[in-house]
Amino acid sequence: MISIKNLVKTYDSLTAIDNVNLDIYDNEVFGLLGPNGAGKTTLIHILATLIKPTTGSASVNGYDIVKESSKVRSSIGIVFQAPSSDDMLTGYENLKLHSLLYAVPIHAREKRINDVLELVGLTDRKNHQVKKYSGGMRRRLEIARGLLHKPKVMFLDEPTLGLDPNSREIMWKYIDRLVKDEKVTLILTTHYMEEADFLCNRIGIIDKGKIIALDSPSRLKESLGGEIIKIELKNKEESMKTFVESILKPYDFVHKVEVNDEENVVIVYVDNASRNLPTILKAIDNNVKSVDFRSPTLNDVFLKYTGRHIMAQQEDHAEGGFMERYAQYENK
Amino acid sequence: MLREVLWKDMLNMKINKNFIEIELGKLYAIWLREFKVFLREKSRIVASTFTPLLWLFVLGAGFGTIATNPSAISGTGQIASGGGPGIDYQKFIFPGIVSMSIIFSSVFFGSYIIWDRKFDFLKSVMVAPVSRTTIFIGKTFGGMTTSLMQAAILLVVGLFLGIHYTPFSIVLIVVIILFLSFALTSLGLAIGSYMESLEGFQLIVSFVVFPLYFLSGALFPLNNLPPWLSILTALDPATYAVDALRNTMVGITGKNPFVLDIGILLGYVIVLGTIGMLSFRRMKAV
Questions:
Q1: Which letter does DSSP use for residue B39 in this model?
Q2: pLDDT below 50 — which residues of chain B?
């Protein structure tokens, strides 16, 4: 569905996209996960033909993004990071506007508008001006707008940025539903690990313009080697740690033992931690002060590849009307 | 080779019966949005109607005391000679005030795309399969509509000042208004397409809107001006609209014959329209 070859985008001295090669398949929910400034939005903008790549090529739905940009545009839907509907118009009017811009056939127009409104749960608010919508409703309207012309590919750029946890979960439900109902290939960017984990079949971890890992969320996590057990030892001697390491290494369910230098902590990567924990504790006898175990998260994956955590991005609240947004602009 | 490609494109257009209908639909959508937003921003309508009235009545009445008494100040001979000693200053500046309203609303309208860009609305239009030219024309039509509506309010006020309209003069007035607003909306869109932040908006007011207004001869006759000022007024497209409107509304034959005014105005429509369209096409989407 999407094929990206040796794509590079540079701004003066900055390399925003650094030789990306990527294929995204039909009916996939693909997540681009990465910290702020990693190049996610730039990549989406290039695929949506809003920016031209410096070198390299890409095709969306079989059309070249540079030579056949108009056809690309007709076949994609896009939801930008910041809501872009007109505040002064109602939800319905915004959809009508875009159905004309995308040349949705006249006979299908009204039904299609009603269908997408229903899909995102805004039917009863369709005649209200968008400036009276909450942040979550605005995002949902954007999704409805993106779906109007039945695109083959849908881009969602940080669909839940700035939403409170409750609205975020509602949003996930709607995204999940649109994948099932509309049968689109979905590409979403996010820096929320849980979001990528929950929604995506496949994830590309992107950092500094490069795709550094690419697989399904579960396989990415498995690649770390099972679950993570953190054992704090009573004995503070250094030799104790190496002793524990030598005891645990031989077990076939143990993948890796990491000895932490600063504290008297040993980190063990194992399969099936809940079953094998008693064996481990028995083996190292009475030296255990405390035990903690958890499944690896995508953050651990990110940490493994970059040595850094995905930083929490400054939340950008999209609530409010024109004047609130103006005030925000003034603050920047 | 090129000819073959063009011919093929034209054939495709013919085959696609809905082509024109679809393009008109897109144009209509962009225009309709502008029109609805204009109608809903009540404060904008009130403010943009009130300011010209303030100029007309306060300035018109104030300066009128000088202008109707030729001995008080020299250089008002044009007023006296054009309409005889009876024509008052308010009537004289009325066409200028109508032009002022068009200058302000058109240039502001055009440069409002900075806001559209700020709030990403422009991005959402540009990612749609719509050509830049269509967006540009839709926008200018929107600007022309809003200018015409605001001018219409003033034209009604003109009745109370004793301006007489005939069906023919109304047609001419509408044509002049549409020409001027098309040219200046294009200018505003061209400037707006180059500006990335709202800070520049004040610069437009100071360096574009007010010079266009003051140099147009809206408030004073253009005869007997110092040469440097004459040159500047001759460069201002609004000058020709003021001159033509004055001719049509109050019967003062100004600096140029009516047909020449219209011709030059049309020239500005073409030149500024082209500049606007080209600027719009090279504008960055994000």
A1: H
A2: 1, 72-86
**Mean pLDDT rounded to a whole number for chain A:** 86
Domain count, chain B: 1
> Which segment of A13-27, A229-243, B186-200 scores lowest on mean pLDDT?
A229-243
Task: Provide CB contacts within 8 A for B254, sequence distance 6+.
Answer: B217, B221, B222, B242, B243, B246, B247, B261
Helix (H) and strand (E) counts in chain A: 12, 14
B72 occurs within a structural domain: yes
| Alpha carbon of B52: minimum distance to chain A alpha carbons (Å) | 26
Give the minimum alpha-carbon distance from B278 to chain A in angstroms, rounded to a whole number.
18
The answer as to whether B100 is a domain residue is yes
- At residue B232, the pLDDT reads 94
Per the structure, the complete domain to which residue B240 belongs is given by: 16-282
Q: Residue B265 class from Cβ within 10 Å (0-12 exposed, 13-18 middle, 19+ buried)?
A: buried
For testing the chain A interface, which of B21, B124, B135, B199 should be mutated: the one with the most A CBs within 10 Å? B124
Give the residue-averaged pLDDT of A285-293. 81
* pLDDT digits 0-9 by tens, A301-321: 888 787 777 654 444 444 444
Taking the C-alpha atoms of residue B276 and residue B273, their distance in angstroms, rounded to an integer, is: 5
Domains parsed from chain A with CATH numbers:
2-221 (3.40.50.300), 225-295 (3.30.70.920)
Counting Cα atoms < 13 Å in the Cβ hemisphere of A87 gives 20
Q: Could you tell me if B50 lies within 8 Å of chain A, comparing CB atoms?
A: no
Out of B29, B30, B127, closest to residue A73 by CB: B127
Q: Does residue A67 carry a pLDDT above 80? A: yes
- Is B27 a domain residue? yes
How far is residue A61's CA from residue A187's CA, in Å, rounded to a whole number?
A: 13
Q: What is the pLDDT of residue A261?
A: 66
Q: Which of A51, A73, A83 sits opposite B129 (nearest CB)?
A: A73
Q: A-chain residues within 8 Å CB-CB of B29?
A: 96-98, 100-101
d(CA B174, CA B158): 15
Tell me the pLDDT tens digit for each residue of A122-154. 999 999 999 999 988 999 999 999 999 999 999
From the list B168, B194, B147, B133, the residue with the least C-alpha distance to B52 is B147
Q: Residue A232: its pLDDT value, please? A: 84
A214: helix, strand or coil: strand
Q: Kindly give the interhelix angle for B42-54 and B89-111, rounded to the nearest 10 degrees.
A: 150
Closest residue on chain B to A142 (Cα): B124
Tell me the nearest-neighbour CA distance from A301 into chain B, angstroms. Answer: 32
Output the six-digit token pair for B46: 């009130």
Looking at per-residue pLDDT, the higher value among B200 and A120 belongs to A120
